[in-house]
Design goal:
Residues 222-238 have a biased composition (Polar residues). Residues 221-251 are annotated as: Disordered. The structure is a single chain. It contains ten helices and two strands. The chain folds into three domains: 2-66, no CATH class; 70-172, no CATH class; 176-248, no CATH class. Residues 220-251 have low confidence and may be disordered. The protein is 49% helix and 2% strand. Strands 1-2 form a two-stranded antiparallel ribbon. The protein has helices at residues 2-16, 23-33, 39-49, 52-66, 79-88, 97-104, 115-130, 145-150, 176-199, 206-212, and strands at residues 238-240, 246-248. Helix 2 packs across helix 3.
Length: 251
């Protein structure tokens, strides 16, 4: 619903926005042409178009689009919808990412959008013609023609397939931040274990520590008959205060 609403507002702006007209003139002009336009809501939208903040945002996005090296010519039609249309016209066979790139960079007159995109198209055709694995799995985005020409995906995002949940890179290891967090957690667990050992000397923590791969001096060398359960760590556990007197943790 959110995407539909944004698309509708974008359609209205493309159709009605004219900086040479006033807000009231734009509203009056559009509501007379399209009965779907609600006058009050549309006036609020047009008023927003003329705000300095909105104008600045548009300028930034316009500049960003101008820096695109290989812009597509699909307009507002999503890549997923374009791929579905191509599959319908091809007996249900969906296009490869290479075919999607060629289609979305080719104008209606058959020309490629620019020289850089033309080089990519030529490379894709060369790789596709040289490939001997014609029956390969198209879902393997790490070995298709597009990945060989444009390189691997970044941040789990898969290009040219439309909107979809971001994939997780299963081949890469944990980040340095994750490793640091793990070490901090191990240290915290070690401190907690030492506190528990001081209050519950007979607790068997060796199995727990072996699963967590945590090393605590003096623990795990000798087995105990009883094991530690979560219920053992409760507000009723006793501790000693600064005066050496026994106190309850729930006080």
């Amino acid at each position: 619903m959110g995407r539909k609403w944004r698309a509708w507002k974008g359609y209205l702006k493309e159709l009605a926005y004219d900086p040479s007209l006033t807000i009231d003139e734009i509203v009056a002009k559009e509501i007379n042409k399209d009965s779907r336009v609600h006058e009050t809501q549309f006036k609020e939208l047009v008023t927003r178009w003329f705000t300095p903040k909105f104008q600045t945002t548009c300028d930034v996005k316009r500049l960003s689009r101008s820096k695109m090296k290989e812009p597509h010519v699909s307009g507002t039609k999503s890549f997923a919808r374009r791929a579905h249309e191509m599959a319908v016209n091809n007996n249900g066979v969906y296009p490869t990412r290479g075919e999607m790139y060629v289609t979305t960079r080719t104008r209606k007159d058959g020309t490629i959008v620019n020289d850089e995109a033309s080089h990519v198209v030529a490379s894709l055709e060369k790789v596709a013609n040289a490939s001997t694995n014609t029956s390969g799995n198209q879902d393997d985005f790490t070995k298709d023609a597009y990945s060989k020409v444009k390189g691997p995906e970044k941040s789990g995002y898969i290009r040219l397939v439309g909107r979809m949940p971001a994939t997780k890179n299963k081949t890469s290891g944990p980040s340095s931040a994750s490793l640091e967090t793990i070490e901090q957690l191990k240290g915290a667990v070690s401190d907690l274990v030492m506190i528990i050992q001081n209050h519950i000397p007979n607790a068997n923590l060796s199995s727990v520590l072996s699963n967590l791969n945590v090393q605590v001096p003096g623990i795990g060398s000798s087995p105990h008959n009883n094991s530690l359960s979560v219920n053992r760590i409760s507000p009723s556990s006793r501790s000693h205060n600064d005066n050496g007197q026994e106190s309850r943790l729930d006080n």
